[in-house]
Backbone:
C-alpha cells in the first residue's frame, strides 16, 4: 500500500519532470515534435497528448475532475494539435494533481474502485492505491519514451532521478 506522502512526492516529481520534458520539447520545431519517431504513439507531441489524456481520465475517475476532451485512447494522440494549448493544459493538470495530492489522506487510498474499461471491454475493480500508483507509473513510462526521442534530437532534459529533484 502507498501512503499520502508517496502521492505528494509523485505529484511533485511528475510536475518537475513534465516541466523538464516540455521545456526541452519547446526547443524543437513543430515539425520535429510531430515527426513519427517510431515510438508507441509515434511522435513526441502525440505521446504527450496521450499522457495528458490518461492523467485527465484517471483524475476524473478518482477525484471527479472534468473528463478529457476526447473519449478514447485512439483519439488521445490527436486531442491537442496546438502545442501551446497542450502545454497549458498539461500545467493545469499538474496543478490539479498537486492540489489533490496535498489533501490525500489514508481514506482516499483505501477501498476499491470499479470502472468500465473500454480498452479491455469489461468492468474492472482494483484497489484505489493501486490505480493511483498506476497513474504515476504510466506518466513515468511514457515520459521515458519522450525523453529518448528528445535525446535522439540532441536535447538533454533534466535528470530523471527522484533524489535530484529540486526542493
Residues:
Amino acid at each position: 500500500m502507498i501512503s499520502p506522502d508517496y502521492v505528494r512526492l509523485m505529484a511533485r516529481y511528475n510536475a518537475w519532470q513534465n516541466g523538464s520534458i516540455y521545456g526541452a520539447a519547446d526547443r524543437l520545431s513543430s515539425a520535429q515534435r510531430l515527426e513519427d519517431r517510431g515510438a508507441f504513439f509515434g511522435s513526441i507531441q502525440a505521446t504527450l497528448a496521450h499522457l495528458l489524456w490518461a492523467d485527465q481520465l484517471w483524475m476524473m475517475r478518482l477525484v471527479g475532475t472534468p473528463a478529457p476532451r476526447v473519449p478514447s485512447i485512439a483519439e488521445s494522440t490527436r486531442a491537442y494539435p496546438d502545442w501551446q494549448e497542450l502545454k497549458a493544459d498539461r500545467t493545469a493538470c499538474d496543478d490539479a494533481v498537486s492540489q489533490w495530492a496535498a489533501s490525500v489522506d489514508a481514506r482516499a487510498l483505501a477501498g476499491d474502485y470499479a470502472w468500465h474499461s473500454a480498452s479491455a471491454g469489461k468492468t474492472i475493480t482494483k484497489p484505489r492505491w493501486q490505480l493511483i500508483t498506476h497513474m504515476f507509473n504510466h506518466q513515468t513510462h511514457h515520459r521515458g519514451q519522450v525523453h529518448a526521442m528528445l535525446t535522439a534530437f540532441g536535447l538533454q532534459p533534466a535528470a530523471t532521478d527522484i533524489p535530484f529533484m529540486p526542493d
